Amino acid sequence: MNQIRLFVTAGQRECAKALDLLSNRFEDDGYPISTMEIDEDTDIWEVSLYAEADQRDHLAGSVSACLEPLFSPPRLEIEELPDIDWVAHSLEGLQPVRAGRFVVHGSHDRHNLKTGELAIEIDAGRAFGTGHHGTTEGCLEMIDVLAKRRSYRRILDLGTGSGVLAIAAAKITASSILATDIDPVAVTVAAENARKNQCAGRIELKTAAGFHADIFARSGPFDLIVANILARPLMALAPGLSRNLAQGGDVILSGILAEQRMRVLAAYKAQALYHRQTLWRDGWVTLHLSR
Predict the structure, then answer these.
(1) Is the pLDDT assigned to residue 129 strictly greater than 50?
(2) Is 27 exposed, middle or buried (0-12, 13-18, 19+ CB in 10 A)?
């Protein structure tokens, strides 16, 4: 079935606020939501929600009502999208991304690698995480920074997506790594990528929602927990994450818009986890916390 894109056009600040509103309202229903810069010189951005075409009438009113506190009236536009794999299409031809000692690349760029780089091969696929998003790039850089400071015995990649962060941890540490995702398709994709990057024996992959599965108690507590998700679920997961973190352990969080940073930090401060460092990338932040 064809898809539609419901979107509004505004400045970066307004679109960031709109993204927060839409994420709070529609995120748990599984609708993809994103922002995109259209023109840097004139500060034109778009925030979009993607859905099946038969939901047009139902969602148009709901999206407009959600955005009404910000735009009065909301300038909602609707675009019909061709029936193609938008994830794969949007990632085709992307250039390698370098973050710390890591370089994330597609199979077509193997010949462009430099001596000494830690290469992670991730092709366009069905799960989030190619290094091209500011959140993934920030997590990769933070993993590199922390791995230079100390050794980790047990690492958790919560919400692994493509598996890129678990693979990065496997390439730079001697740790036992557990990678989980609520989406079984993502777990399958991550397993394929782990095999492709010769890390399959180092990473245990499981489908799990939150911290309710038994695998966390069996594999933890963890010296390092990495979670690149979104601000709302990260705040909800704070108590469970704290319970599964070893004493003196480190936490890397991302998927957080810059204006959501203080709310996330407050949720984790309530669990006696304190801010150590922030990386800022393209309007997103990556946080390092520890006890």
Answers:
(1) no
(2) middle
